[in-house]
Amino acid sequence: xxxxxxxPTASELGVAFWNRLSAWCAARNGGNAQGFETVDAxxxxxxxxxxxxxxxxxxxxxxxxxxxLSPEEAAAALEALAEDGELxxxxxxxxxxxxxxxxxxxxxxxxxRAVGGSPKLKLKTGTSDMNLVGPAWGCPIVAxxxxxxxxxxxxxxxVPLADLEHGVAVLSAAIERIAGHIANGRWGGNA
Length: 191
Fold this sequence. Notes:
The chain is an alpha+beta fold. 40% of the residues lie in helices and 11% in strands. The protein has helices at residues 10-29, 71-82, 103-114, 129-137, 161-183; strands spanning 40-50, 55-64. The protein has a two-stranded antiparallel sheet with strand order 1-2. The longest helix has 23 residues, at 161-183. The relative contact order is 0.11. The model has no long low-confidence stretch (mean pLDDT 87).
């Protein structure tokens, strides 16, 4: 509608959708802080336009889904929140969590300690190859990498060479440990 008219503008409708989505996430999360078990929305882009007669508002947003919410359930909720707007969804893989008691995790924990590190188990939010191959392959799987993960996907993303060298040492130690257990027929239990 025209800004002088009584109806909300396309921009106002876009903001109203974002507000409904944010409120839905907050209600679903029940006051829990952002993390692996919460659904988290990110507004990535908002574009508005008008040719003088017709106005548009396009939002691009991402949702990080917890294991308890399937992409299909999230899509149904988004459809309901969209009301009279058009919704185009690109669905990725559902969240996946590997077993922290797996022999692969044990091998990495031991390898980190062996090269002087202090291992910490973390739940990684977002999408990785693990989300696809973990359920498909049904085998132990971990995510491991050097550097400060808070710098990932940032303009100043980098890994200090010392962290990279430490990461290579950990991977080498983990591979040697796993190979030794396989060669001795002990793989599958506690590595």
